[in-house]
Amino acid sequence: MDMDYAHFMVTQGRKEKDNSVPSSPSSEAYKRLLAETLNLNRTRILAFKNKPPVPVELIPHQHTASASSTTHQAKPTKPRRHIPQVKQTSERTLDAPDLVDDFYLNLLDWGSSNVLAIALGSTVYLWDASTGSTSELVTVDEEHGPVTSVNWAPDGRHIAIGLNNSEVQLWDSASNKQLRTLKGGHRCRVGSLAWNDHILTTGGMDGRIINNDVRIRDHIVETYRGHTQEVCGLKWSASGKQLASGGNDNLIHIWDRSVASSSSPTQYLHRLEDHTSAVKALAWCPFQSNLLASGGGGGDRTIKFWNTHTGACLNSVDTGSQVCALLWNKNERELLSSHGFTQNQLTLWKYPSMVKTAELTGHTSRVLFLAQSPDGCTVASAAGDETLRFWNVFGDPNEAAKKSAPKKNQEPFAWANRIR
C-alpha cells in the first residue's frame, strides 16, 4: 500500500483532473510514458495482479483417506445410548394389592437367582422373572405383621423378612422353609435390611443398627448407634467395608466395618447432615468405590453425592419432588431415581452432568420402591397405586444375554505354537 500516492490521488489528483485543459497528442503520449515509468497508472489501491497459486498437497488425498479410516477403525466412536419415546412406558404391569404405602419401609428386592420378592400386607410373594410364575412364600400372623422389609442374601436362595413386631425371619426359598428367627435386637419394627456376606444388618424404628451373624446362636455381633429416629435406608458398599445408613432424623452415617466392636456401640466414621428431610434412598456407585448417592424426602427433594473417604458433599441437585429410591446403571454412567408428588415418575440422569436423559411415567402414586434385575437391564418399581411395573431402562435384556453368554472352552494358550 502506497499511502503517499493514495493521498495524492484523493486530493491533488482529483483537482488536476477537474482543472485539466485540452493538450496536444504529443503531450498525452509523454504523460502515458511518464506514468508507466513511475508506476503511477493505478486505479485500485488493493488489487491482485494474478490469482493466488493453487496449494500443493504435501500428502496425497488417497493416503490421508486411508489413514483416517485406519484411525477410525482403531478407535471406534461409541454411539450415544438413546431411549426411544415408546420405551418410556413400562414393559409390563402387575397388580400389587395391599402394598403398604409407607415411605420408610423396604418391601421390594430382586435376588441373584432372578426372583423378585415383594411384601403385600402380611404376605411375601415371589415372582420368577425367568418363567413369569408367582408363588407365596409366607403369610405371617397378624400379631407379627405386617411385613416391613425384605432382602435377598447374596446366594439368591435365602431371604430375610423384617416384621412389624421387631423380629426378623430367615427363609429358604427353594424349600419354602423358615430357618430361624432373629429376636432381641430391636424394640420396634425393622424397616431396613442389608446383607454383607454372612452378616445381616438390620435397621429399626428404634434408631438402632445391628449386625447379625446368621451362622451362630448369639447372632448380635455389633451395634451401631447414631440415629435418633427410624433407620429407613441401609446399604453396604461393594467391598463390604463401609455401611451407609439413612434415617428419619435427616442424617446419613458412614460406618467402617474394620473398627466395629462387639463390646461397645461403634462410632460412625462420618455424620452427613446436609439433607433437610428423611433419607431412605441410598446407592453406592458401581464404578467409583467411595462415591455414594443419597436422596431426601418431601421436605428436601435433592439428590446428593458424597465422597465417603472424606465425608465431603460433591454435588447437590434439586429434583423438585420427594426422592424415594435410587439405582445406578451397572454398564453406563447413569443414575435412576423414583419420585413422589407431583409426577410420580422415574427419572434417568446422566452422571456427572446430572442432565435428565429420560422421564418414565405411568404410576399414579409415589414410586416407593425400586429393584434391579441381576443382568442390570430391567428395573422393577412398586408404588402406592398398588402396581408393580417393569422398565428396560438400562438396556435390552436380550443384548445383555448375548454378551454374557459363555464362550466355547478353548485350550489354554491355543494361540501359541506347540512345543514338541
From TrEMBL:
WD repeat residue intervals: 140-181, 224-256, 360-393
Comp. bias intervals (Polar residues): 63-74
Stretches with biased composition (Basic residues): 75-84
Domain (CDC20/Fizzy WD40): residue spans on this chain: 94-391
UniProt xrefs under InterPro entries: Cdc20/Fizzy, WD40/YVTN_repeat-like_dom_sf, WD40_CDC20-Fz, WD40_repeat_CS, WD40_repeat_dom_sf, WD40_rpt
Sorted UniProt keywords: Cell cycle, Cell division, Mitosis, Repeat, WD repeat
Cellular component aspect of the GO annotation: anaphase-promoting complex
Single GO biological process annotation from the record: cell division
CDD domains according to UniProt: WD40 (cd00200)
Region of interest called Disordered, as start-end residue ranges on this chain: 63-89, 400-420
Domain of life: Eukaryota
GO MF annotations in UniProt: anaphase-promoting complex binding; ubiquitin ligase activator activity
Family indicated by similarity: Belongs to the WD repeat CDC20/Fizzy family.
Main function: Component of the anaphase promoting complex/cyclosome (APC/C), a cell cycle-regulated E3 ubiquitin-protein ligase complex that controls progression through mitosis and the G1 phase of the cell cycle.
Name of the featured protein: CDC20/Fizzy WD40 domain-containing protein
Source organism phylogeny: Eukaryota, Viridiplantae, Streptophyta, Embryophyta, Tracheophyta
